[in-house]
Design brief:
Number of helices: 3
Largest sheet: none
Number of strands: 0
Helix content: 55-70%
Shape: elongated
């Protein structure tokens, strides 16, 4: 049996390379997540202590953004996995 031949109409084996568009989406989301979590606003980094509410809103908003982007990546990955298995 040839194990390299596509089975059930699959074009790539499960866990194989993802399409370029999906990899680009994941890369962009990961870079945005890194920027949001690692580089707080300039006024916060400069030590402006008068904006505690803004700093708290930034931390909460950044956390929500990261969680949502992880959920988007999960949903896209699951949709791609379902397409691979279709007969």
């Amino acid at each position: 049996m040839n194990t390299l031949a596509p089975r059930h109409g699959r074009t790539a084996p499960p866990g194989g390379p993802r399409p370029r568009r999906t990899r680009a989406l994941f890369g962009c989301l990961l870079v945005l997540d890194a920027v949001v979590t690692c580089f707080p606003p300039v006024y916060w980094a400069a030590g402006n202590g008068d904006s505690r509410a803004a700093a708290l809103a930034y931390v909460i908003g950044g956390g929500i953004f990261v969680v949502l982007s992880v959920l988007v990546m999960y949903a896209v990955d699951r949709a791609g996995a379902r397409e691979e298995v279709r007969p």
